[in-house]
Amino acid sequence: MRVAIFSDIHGKILLPFKLVDLYQKETGNTVDFILQCGDMGAYPHIDNLDKATVKHAQYDRDELGFHDDFTKVNPNIKSFLDELNIKMICVRGNHEDHDFLDNLENDNSQTSLFPIDIYGKVFVCKSGFIQELKTKNEVLTFVGIGRIGDRKGRTEKRFIQEYERKEIRKLLKTKDVFDLLITHDKDDSSQRGYGMSEIREVLDNIIFHYHFYGHTGEPFKQETDFNGITQSIKIKELEFNENGILEKGCMIILTKENEELSIEIVDQKLTNTMTKYNWKTYN
């Protein structure tokens, strides 16, 4: 099984799919799923944009990609996604239309993940629930925790909610070992004054082989977590730099084969094929 992992796509919903398609064509390796670490930019209604997205969208229409391309059928996009036949499973970030996502989550109360787009290819997983990805020969287990933490007692929907904390407390009772933890925020062990305490608690009490996160704006980095077990990986945001190219560590391929996990940091020679100026029309 191969899984492509991205973070902070900010409306460029189509870009991970296009990069996976390119990766498959260039390497001959099949990708089975996409995981995404939040800040999808899932804004179906322009009136509900947050201040940061309004600001960036003035200069970059890609910020509105969910609204433009994933709320009504574009025949070309539909044909491409149907042929690719891969699902992208995301956690919530802080830059999302949480009212929209809350409504969908409530409508799908009996499932641990739910679709959010017109094509049925983009899913959000609920925080604290155990998830499984399955292929013919492998099963990958992971847990997602969305949104961001807060140390000031704020309750806006960009911050983790009490009902999610309850699910995480249930999760802490498990003795299972999981392949991945996927979060938007990082844990709160940093001295910078941000992070999510719930992530730290999960990492201290449950064994995960890998933890992937985004949000912080830091470069890509891989290190052993404070628990001495988990490999913690900060994925570089899927953003084009001032030269119009994607930066190192914005696309990770995780492979599970015969119960063994390994990761590949996709070479920039491949990701640089798609630039800020050509990615939407690149075939």
TrEMBL record:
Q: Which residues form a coiled coil?
A: none
Q: State any single GO MF term.
A: hydrolase activity
Check the record and name the InterPro entries matching this protein.
Answer: Calcineurin-like_PHP (IPR004843), Metallo-depent_PP-like (IPR029052)
- Annotated Calcineurin-like phosphoesterase domain ranges read 1-216
Protein name as catalogued: Calcineurin-like phosphoesterase superfamily domain
Organism of origin: Chryseobacterium carnipullorum
